[in-house]
Amino acid sequence: MSNDIFLLDQSPLFPPADLAQENPNGLLAVGGDLSVERLIEAYKSGIFPWFCEGEPILWWSPDPRCVFLLDDVHVSRSMKRELNKSTYTITINKSFGAVVDGCAAPRAKEPETWILPEMKSAYQELHSQGFAHSIEVWKDDELVGGLYGVSLGRFFFGESMFSRAKNASKFALIYLTNYLLKNDFILLDSQVGNPHLYSMGAVDITRENFLELLAKHSDWQQPDDLWQPKQLLDWR
């Protein structure tokens, strides 16, 4: 394990993810930019950016890695009842910018956000080029929840989610994982675990295992119409 934090130059290439630090867990590199080319190289290498206001761009690859194995997403009996009686409408890529804004908005326990203006701009460009996608949850015509992330090969790399109504972010996650499973994906990356994610079936796998899966499945060609804006009609 390296004790160095790598300083990035103009090249979009990264050092191997398994050279990331143990403390803080997963910190690999500093600097560079948030260009589409660099971000795609990062995700294909098992690396993602995360930094706060006043910090340089920090790049991470933690060990272990929190993921959803799509066959193992947990939907409780009570949640199934909520899903079956719900009047929410769930869509893909209908309002990407609004979902990112919702994820960036201050929260009661998190008054500060890591989704800074430069991050918003970078992921909006990824969306424009067909790499970043959103799931929206609507109550009538009001956006009440959603999530966004990046999709490459058979992976969806979740970035953030938000909820302004009961279970809205859970609905977004459940509908997305079902959609991914039906379209031959194998994994939804959640980066770092928390009790909410674990309660829905997320598990930790080693970085080595994560990188092996990524190397095997990141070049799979997604169907051309996979991320066309649409309504999702089924959660199972």
TrEMBL record:
Keywords: Acyltransferase, Cytoplasm, Transferase
Origin: domain of life: Bacteria
Gene Ontology CC terms, in alphabetical order: cytoplasm
Gene3D superfamilies registered for this protein in UniProt: Leucyl/phenylalanyl-tRNA-protein transferase, C-terminal domain (3.40.630.70), Leucyl/phenylalanyl-tRNA-protein transferase, N-terminal domain (3.30.70.3550)
Transmembrane regions: none
Enzyme Commission number(s) of this protein: 2.3.2.6
Cross-referenced InterPro entries: Acyl_CoA_acyltransferase, Leu/Phe-tRNA_Trfase, Leu/Phe-tRNA_Trfase_C, Leu/Phe-tRNA_Trfase_N
GO molecular function, one term: leucyl-tRNA--protein transferase activity
EC category: transferase
Catalysed reaction, written as an equation: L-phenylalanyl-tRNA(Phe) + an N-terminal L-alpha-aminoacyl-[protein] = an N-terminal L-phenylalanyl-L-alpha-aminoacyl-[protein] + tRNA(Phe); N-terminal L-arginyl-[protein] + L-leucyl-tRNA(Leu) = N-terminal L-leucyl-L-arginyl-[protein] + tRNA(Leu) + H(+); N-terminal L-lysyl-[protein] + L-leucyl-tRNA(Leu) = N-terminal L-leucyl-L-lysyl-[protein] + tRNA(Leu) + H(+)
Subcellular location: Cytoplasm
A single BP term in Gene Ontology: protein catabolic process
Entry keyword Transport: no
Family: Belongs to the L/F-transferase family.
PANTHER family in UniProt: LEUCYL/PHENYLALANYL-TRNA--PROTEIN TRANSFERASE (PTHR30098), LEUCYL_PHENYLALANYL-TRNA--PROTEIN TRANSFERASE (PTHR30098:SF2)
Stated role: Functions in the N-end rule pathway of protein degradation where it conjugates Leu, Phe and, less efficiently, Met from aminoacyl-tRNAs to the N-termini of proteins containing an N-terminal arginine or lysine.
Name of the molecule in the record: Leucyl/phenylalanyl-tRNA--protein transferase
Organism lineage string: Bacteria, Pseudomonadati, Pseudomonadota, Gammaproteobacteria, Kangiellales
